[in-house]
Write a structure and sequence with these properties.
Layout lengths: L1 H19 L4 H8 L3 H8 L6 H10 L4 H10 L10 H8 L2 H11 L4 H8 L3 H13 L3 E3 L5 E3 L10 H16 L19 H28 L19 H6 L6 H4 L1
Antiparallel strand pairs: 1-2
Helix pairs in contact: 1-5, 2-3, 6-10
Length: 255
Protein backbone atom coordinates (compact mmCIF):
# COMPACT_ATOMS: atom_id res chain seq x y z
CA UNK A 1 0.00 0.00 0.00
CA UNK A 2 2.84 2.37 0.85
CA UNK A 3 4.56 1.58 -2.47
CA UNK A 4 1.34 2.15 -4.43
CA UNK A 5 0.71 5.44 -2.63
CA UNK A 6 4.24 6.68 -3.35
CA UNK A 7 4.03 5.61 -7.01
CA UNK A 8 0.74 7.44 -7.44
CA UNK A 9 2.18 10.58 -5.82
CA UNK A 10 5.29 10.37 -8.03
CA UNK A 11 3.17 10.14 -11.19
CA UNK A 12 0.99 13.05 -10.06
CA UNK A 13 4.08 15.16 -9.38
CA UNK A 14 5.62 14.14 -12.71
CA UNK A 15 2.49 15.10 -14.67
CA UNK A 16 2.36 18.45 -12.89
CA UNK A 17 6.01 19.25 -13.65
CA UNK A 18 5.71 18.16 -17.27
CA UNK A 19 2.69 20.41 -17.64
CA UNK A 20 4.56 23.31 -16.05
CA UNK A 21 7.49 22.76 -18.42
CA UNK A 22 5.13 22.88 -21.41
CA UNK A 23 5.35 19.19 -22.29
CA UNK A 24 2.19 18.14 -24.11
CA UNK A 25 1.38 14.51 -24.87
CA UNK A 26 2.24 15.19 -28.51
CA UNK A 27 5.63 16.71 -27.64
CA UNK A 28 6.45 13.82 -25.32
CA UNK A 29 5.54 11.29 -27.99
CA UNK A 30 7.68 13.07 -30.57
CA UNK A 31 10.65 13.47 -28.21
CA UNK A 32 10.62 9.80 -27.21
CA UNK A 33 9.64 8.44 -30.65
CA UNK A 34 6.55 6.72 -29.30
CA UNK A 35 2.86 6.98 -30.12
CA UNK A 36 0.58 9.45 -28.35
CA UNK A 37 -1.50 6.57 -26.98
CA UNK A 38 1.65 5.06 -25.45
CA UNK A 39 2.62 8.40 -23.90
CA UNK A 40 -0.85 8.72 -22.39
CA UNK A 41 -0.62 5.20 -20.93
CA UNK A 42 2.77 5.90 -19.37
CA UNK A 43 1.54 9.14 -17.84
CA UNK A 44 -1.43 7.24 -16.41
CA UNK A 45 0.98 4.72 -14.83
CA UNK A 46 0.18 1.89 -17.24
CA UNK A 47 3.17 -0.02 -18.54
CA UNK A 48 5.61 2.50 -17.11
CA UNK A 49 8.87 0.93 -15.86
CA UNK A 50 11.50 2.66 -13.74
CA UNK A 51 13.55 3.31 -16.88
CA UNK A 52 10.55 4.88 -18.61
CA UNK A 53 9.71 6.91 -15.52
CA UNK A 54 13.29 8.15 -15.41
CA UNK A 55 13.08 9.12 -19.09
CA UNK A 56 9.89 11.09 -18.48
CA UNK A 57 11.36 12.73 -15.39
CA UNK A 58 14.39 13.93 -17.34
CA UNK A 59 12.08 15.77 -19.75
CA UNK A 60 10.95 17.82 -16.75
CA UNK A 61 14.58 18.25 -15.63
CA UNK A 62 14.06 15.95 -12.65
CA UNK A 63 15.79 12.88 -11.29
CA UNK A 64 13.92 9.89 -9.90
CA UNK A 65 15.33 10.76 -6.49
CA UNK A 66 13.91 14.28 -6.63
CA UNK A 67 10.56 12.93 -7.79
CA UNK A 68 10.48 10.39 -4.97
CA UNK A 69 11.40 12.98 -2.34
CA UNK A 70 8.68 15.30 -3.57
CA UNK A 71 6.16 12.44 -3.41
CA UNK A 72 7.24 11.58 0.13
CA UNK A 73 7.09 15.22 1.23
CA UNK A 74 3.75 15.91 -0.42
CA UNK A 75 1.09 17.04 2.07
CA UNK A 76 -1.32 14.21 2.80
CA UNK A 77 -4.35 16.47 2.73
CA UNK A 78 -4.77 19.58 0.66
CA UNK A 79 -6.74 22.44 2.16
CA UNK A 80 -10.25 22.73 0.73
CA UNK A 81 -10.87 26.22 2.02
CA UNK A 82 -8.71 29.25 2.73
CA UNK A 83 -8.52 30.68 6.20
CA UNK A 84 -9.78 34.19 6.82
CA UNK A 85 -6.18 35.34 7.34
CA UNK A 86 -5.12 33.86 4.00
CA UNK A 87 -8.01 35.51 2.16
CA UNK A 88 -7.25 38.85 3.81
CA UNK A 89 -3.61 38.61 2.75
CA UNK A 90 -4.49 37.73 -0.85
CA UNK A 91 -7.07 40.50 -1.04
CA UNK A 92 -4.45 43.17 -0.31
CA UNK A 93 -2.82 42.73 -3.73
CA UNK A 94 -4.63 41.96 -6.98
CA UNK A 95 -1.51 40.46 -8.61
CA UNK A 96 -0.82 38.23 -5.60
CA UNK A 97 -4.36 36.81 -5.74
CA UNK A 98 -4.14 36.36 -9.53
CA UNK A 99 -0.76 34.64 -9.20
CA UNK A 100 -2.13 32.23 -6.64
CA UNK A 101 -5.15 31.36 -8.83
CA UNK A 102 -2.92 30.85 -11.88
CA UNK A 103 -0.56 28.58 -9.93
CA UNK A 104 -3.58 26.70 -8.60
CA UNK A 105 -4.56 26.01 -12.21
CA UNK A 106 -1.15 24.66 -13.16
CA UNK A 107 0.39 27.71 -14.88
CA UNK A 108 4.13 27.87 -14.07
CA UNK A 109 5.61 31.07 -12.56
CA UNK A 110 7.92 31.66 -15.54
CA UNK A 111 4.96 31.69 -17.93
CA UNK A 112 3.07 34.17 -15.74
CA UNK A 113 6.14 36.39 -15.46
CA UNK A 114 6.57 36.34 -19.24
CA UNK A 115 2.91 37.12 -19.96
CA UNK A 116 2.86 40.13 -17.64
CA UNK A 117 6.50 41.30 -17.84
CA UNK A 118 7.04 40.70 -14.12
CA UNK A 119 10.70 41.16 -13.08
CA UNK A 120 12.27 38.07 -11.52
CA UNK A 121 12.86 39.87 -8.22
CA UNK A 122 9.19 40.83 -7.98
CA UNK A 123 8.07 37.28 -8.84
CA UNK A 124 10.42 35.82 -6.21
CA UNK A 125 8.98 38.19 -3.61
CA UNK A 126 5.40 37.24 -4.52
CA UNK A 127 6.19 33.52 -4.38
CA UNK A 128 7.91 33.98 -1.02
CA UNK A 129 4.79 35.75 0.25
CA UNK A 130 2.56 32.87 -0.90
CA UNK A 131 4.91 30.40 0.78
CA UNK A 132 4.76 32.31 4.08
CA UNK A 133 0.98 32.15 3.83
CA UNK A 134 1.25 28.32 3.57
CA UNK A 135 -0.41 28.39 0.14
CA UNK A 136 2.53 26.96 -1.83
CA UNK A 137 5.82 25.16 -1.35
CA UNK A 138 8.84 26.26 -3.36
CA UNK A 139 10.87 23.25 -4.47
CA UNK A 140 14.30 22.76 -5.97
CA UNK A 141 14.84 24.09 -9.47
CA UNK A 142 12.29 26.87 -9.11
CA UNK A 143 9.35 24.49 -9.10
CA UNK A 144 6.13 25.15 -7.20
CA UNK A 145 3.73 22.87 -5.34
CA UNK A 146 0.35 24.30 -4.38
CA UNK A 147 -0.98 23.27 -0.96
CA UNK A 148 -4.65 23.95 -1.69
CA UNK A 149 -7.18 21.82 -3.55
CA UNK A 150 -8.15 23.28 -6.93
CA UNK A 151 -11.82 22.79 -6.09
CA UNK A 152 -11.69 25.27 -3.22
CA UNK A 153 -14.47 27.83 -2.97
CA UNK A 154 -13.94 31.42 -1.81
CA UNK A 155 -16.67 32.03 0.73
CA UNK A 156 -15.32 34.80 2.93
CA UNK A 157 -15.66 38.55 2.54
CA UNK A 158 -12.08 39.63 1.61
CA UNK A 159 -11.80 37.85 -1.75
CA UNK A 160 -15.45 38.46 -2.57
CA UNK A 161 -14.75 42.18 -2.06
CA UNK A 162 -11.63 41.93 -4.22
CA UNK A 163 -13.70 40.42 -7.03
CA UNK A 164 -16.30 43.14 -6.62
CA UNK A 165 -13.65 45.86 -6.91
CA UNK A 166 -11.41 44.53 -9.68
CA UNK A 167 -13.19 41.79 -11.64
CA UNK A 168 -16.90 42.56 -11.68
CA UNK A 169 -16.54 45.32 -14.28
CA UNK A 170 -14.86 42.89 -16.69
CA UNK A 171 -18.15 41.00 -16.90
CA UNK A 172 -20.80 43.63 -16.31
CA UNK A 173 -19.38 46.17 -18.77
CA UNK A 174 -19.38 43.63 -21.59
CA UNK A 175 -21.24 44.37 -24.80
CA UNK A 176 -23.62 41.43 -24.70
CA UNK A 177 -24.89 42.36 -28.16
CA UNK A 178 -21.44 41.73 -29.67
CA UNK A 179 -21.41 38.42 -31.61
CA UNK A 180 -17.94 37.73 -30.17
CA UNK A 181 -19.34 37.73 -26.61
CA UNK A 182 -20.19 34.19 -25.55
CA UNK A 183 -22.72 33.88 -22.76
CA UNK A 184 -25.71 31.86 -21.62
CA UNK A 185 -28.64 32.92 -19.51
CA UNK A 186 -31.77 31.27 -18.13
CA UNK A 187 -34.66 32.51 -16.00
CA UNK A 188 -35.96 29.70 -13.80
CA UNK A 189 -38.51 29.21 -11.08
CA UNK A 190 -37.01 26.90 -8.44
CA UNK A 191 -37.63 25.72 -4.93
CA UNK A 192 -34.82 26.16 -2.41
CA UNK A 193 -33.93 22.51 -3.01
CA UNK A 194 -33.79 23.17 -6.75
CA UNK A 195 -31.60 26.24 -6.21
CA UNK A 196 -29.22 24.14 -4.12
CA UNK A 197 -29.01 21.57 -6.92
CA UNK A 198 -28.31 24.35 -9.41
CA UNK A 199 -25.43 25.55 -7.20
CA UNK A 200 -24.02 22.00 -7.26
CA UNK A 201 -24.28 21.93 -11.06
CA UNK A 202 -22.34 25.18 -11.22
CA UNK A 203 -19.60 23.74 -9.02
CA UNK A 204 -19.33 20.63 -11.20
CA UNK A 205 -19.14 22.88 -14.25
CA UNK A 206 -16.23 24.79 -12.68
CA UNK A 207 -14.35 21.52 -12.20
CA UNK A 208 -15.09 20.55 -15.83
CA UNK A 209 -13.68 23.92 -16.94
CA UNK A 210 -10.47 23.22 -15.01
CA UNK A 211 -10.18 19.82 -16.70
CA UNK A 212 -10.72 21.44 -20.10
CA UNK A 213 -7.92 23.93 -19.39
CA UNK A 214 -5.58 21.08 -18.39
CA UNK A 215 -6.36 19.16 -21.59
CA UNK A 216 -5.96 22.27 -23.73
CA UNK A 217 -2.58 23.00 -22.18
CA UNK A 218 -1.40 19.49 -23.06
CA UNK A 219 -2.76 19.40 -26.61
CA UNK A 220 -2.96 22.97 -27.96
CA UNK A 221 -0.74 23.62 -30.97
CA UNK A 222 -1.57 27.33 -31.25
CA UNK A 223 -1.06 30.20 -28.82
CA UNK A 224 -3.28 30.51 -25.78
CA UNK A 225 -4.83 33.65 -24.28
CA UNK A 226 -6.25 34.43 -20.84
CA UNK A 227 -10.02 34.01 -20.52
CA UNK A 228 -12.36 34.68 -17.63
CA UNK A 229 -15.58 32.85 -16.84
CA UNK A 230 -18.33 33.80 -14.42
CA UNK A 231 -21.13 31.64 -13.08
CA UNK A 232 -23.69 33.33 -10.91
CA UNK A 233 -27.21 32.70 -9.66
CA UNK A 234 -29.40 34.94 -7.57
CA UNK A 235 -33.02 35.50 -6.72
CA UNK A 236 -34.45 38.03 -9.19
CA UNK A 237 -36.06 41.32 -8.24
CA UNK A 238 -39.34 41.09 -10.15
CA UNK A 239 -40.80 44.38 -8.91
CA UNK A 240 -40.16 46.23 -12.18
CA UNK A 241 -41.90 43.51 -14.15
CA UNK A 242 -44.82 43.53 -11.77
CA UNK A 243 -45.15 47.32 -12.06
CA UNK A 244 -45.10 47.11 -15.85
CA UNK A 245 -47.71 44.36 -15.88
CA UNK A 246 -49.29 43.85 -19.27
CA UNK A 247 -50.28 47.47 -19.74
CA UNK A 248 -47.72 48.10 -22.47
CA UNK A 249 -48.91 45.23 -24.63
CA UNK A 250 -51.10 46.25 -27.52
CA UNK A 251 -54.00 44.20 -28.83
CA UNK A 252 -51.83 43.12 -31.76
CA UNK A 253 -49.08 42.01 -29.34
CA UNK A 254 -51.54 39.95 -27.36
CA UNK A 255 -52.69 38.19 -30.49
Amino acid sequence: MRHESTSTAMLAALRRHLRQEGWTVLRIAQALSIGEATAKRWLAGKGVTLDRLDTLARLARLTLGELAREAEDAPSDLAHELTLAQEKALSTNIFLSFLFMALLNGVPPDEIAGDFAVPQRAMDAALARLERLALIDRLRGGRIRVRVDRALVFRKLPLRSLFDTHMKSAFFELDYGDPETCFGSEVLKLSRAGAAQLAELMERYRIDVQALADHDRQTATIGREWYGTLMVMRMLDMSQLRRAGLGDLSVRDSL
